[in-house]
Amino acid sequence: MDQLIINKILDVLQSGCNERTIPNKDGFLKYGIALHSPDLVNRGSCTSNTATLDNIESISKAITNHENCISEKHLIQQRTSKIKSLLAVNGSVDFEVFYAPSGTDLSYYPILFAKVMYPEKPILNIVTCSDEVGGGTSISAEGRHHGAMNQFGAPIEKGGKVLNMSKIKVHTIEVRGQEGQILSSMNDLDALVESYGDDNVIIINLAYCSKSGVEDNLSVLDRPWANKVLWNVDLCQFRHDKEVINRLLRKKAAIMITGSKFYQSPPFCGAMLVPRTMFAKLEHADWSVVDGYRDVFSKFDMPNKLHDKVDWNPTFNLSTHARWACAIDEMQRFDNLNQYQAKKVIINWHRKMVDYIKNSEHLELMPGQENTNKTIIPFKVKVNGKCLGIDELKKFHYDFVTQDYSEVLGNKHVFIGQPVKYGNDQAFLRLAVGSKNIRQFIDENDNSFIKDVRILNILQEQLKSAFVLA
Question: N or C of the chain: less Cβ packing under 10 Å?
Answer without folding.
Answer: C
